[in-house]
Amino acid sequence: MNGWQFVIHQEALEKIDSLSPRQRREIRATLLRLVDDPWQRPDAEIQPPNDRIYLVKNVRELRVLYWLDAFAREVYVVRVDQPK
User: Fold this and answer.
1) Which helix (H) or strand (E) holds 13?
2) What is the C-alpha to C-alpha distance for residues 15 and 13, in angstroms, rounded to an integer?
3) Which of 1, 47, 55, 84 has the least CB density, counted as fewest CB within 10 Å?
4) What's the predicted TM-score (pTM) here?
5) Contact predicate 12/53, CB 8 Å
6) What confidence tens digit (pLDDT) does each residue in 17-65 have?
């Protein structure tokens, strides 16, 4: 363990709860890989106007939007959704 953990926003957790068991397992595996190696290369980056850069990990038909807090050693999961 490297001391990193993930923090999930409520909206993202509610989306994960609504997924199929297979999708939940895949999202969980992705989150565990992110805390094991938070500096891995993201699949994309999104920067909304007047906001921070969000990193993206694609998980089949879903994507996980997150950002890293190196000081707190946390991966903040902001949203889980389907790309438009």
Assistant:
1) helix 10-17
2) 5
3) 84
4) 0.91
5) no
6) 999 999 999 999 999 999 999 999 999 999 988 889 999 999 999 999 9
Euclidean distance between CA atoms 74 and 38, whole angstroms: 9
Residue 79's Cα: distance from chain center in Å? 7
The residue behind tokens 């950002």 is: 67
Burial 66-77 (b: 16+ CB within 10 A, else e): bebeeeeebbbb
Q: How far is CA 30 from the centre of its chain?
A: 8
Q: Which amino acid is it at 66?
A: Y
Strand partners, 81: 63
